[in-house]
Design a protein that fits this description.
- It is built from eight helices and eleven strands.
- It is of the alpha/beta class and 300 residues long.
- It has one domain: UDP-N-acetylmuramoyl-L-alanine:D-glutamate ligase.
- α2 runs parallel beside α3, α3 packs parallel to α4 and α7 runs antiparallel to α8.
- The radius of gyration is 18 Å and the shape is globular.
Length: 300
Amino acid sequence: MSDAVPTDLRPAAPGVAARRVPVPGRRPVPRVLAVAGSDPSGGAGIQADLKSVAAAGGYGMAAVTALTAQSTRGVTGVHVPPPAFLAQQLATLSADVAIDAVKIGMLASAEVAAVVADWLASGPGVEPGAGRPPVVLDPVMVATSGDRLLDAAAQDAVRDLLDHADVVTPNVPELAVLLAEPQAVDWEGVLEQATRLAARHGVLVVAKGGHLDGSTVLDALVGPTGSVAELAAPRVRTSSTHGTGCSLSSGLATRYAAGGDWCRALRETKEWLTAAIAAGEELEVGRGHGPVDHFVRLRP
């Protein structure tokens, strides 16, 4: 690892006001809310989020943005409930439960993204003076096949959400979409794009190298000032990669809420996820890209 990445202050980017984000109180059981779509196969979406939060020692909650018909072979349909109902879910929950971290996943439409942005801007929380909880944004924008999952208006709305997030976790294609640029073809290009995205929005960027070739997978936590904390792990040759982005982002949010250190939270989440990916095929779920084993560390 190189320069330390700030954990409690979002530096100002051009046109973005700096704001202090409370460092979590190192709660033994962080209360983590996932705002995302549902996956009936259990490998991705809020199902993966809840498993990941539990595996990291947190208490998981979920506000559903969309219902999908999908399996390990792909998505065959999406139903988006009225955005006003999502607003009701968020308002009802945050009026009662103190939320220690928020993970945002699939948003489906510009209207849904706007509801989430308005809720975050309101500073949700029932504890006086607590402010807005830390937010991890997983920009679900590009399918494994390379197909775009959002229309142009929804993509713009997700970009706008960057100014409400503390950390964003794009894969290589999503990083390119967020910048409206061609996709990077090597790790140096990924880091360069992540650095510019971080500086533009005053946000930490988890640059992920899983889409690149090589026997080693590199990830990095890139800060708005150009700091880079790099991590490496051996590539696991497996078909069990369904929901890895969901799992990483929700695990990261939980571990940060418990410890208050983004670098440590990312390192521990990457170690856990690598083991979960390696054990995924033993679950024998589906005939396509199967899920990871979120509870690998509980197995005998």
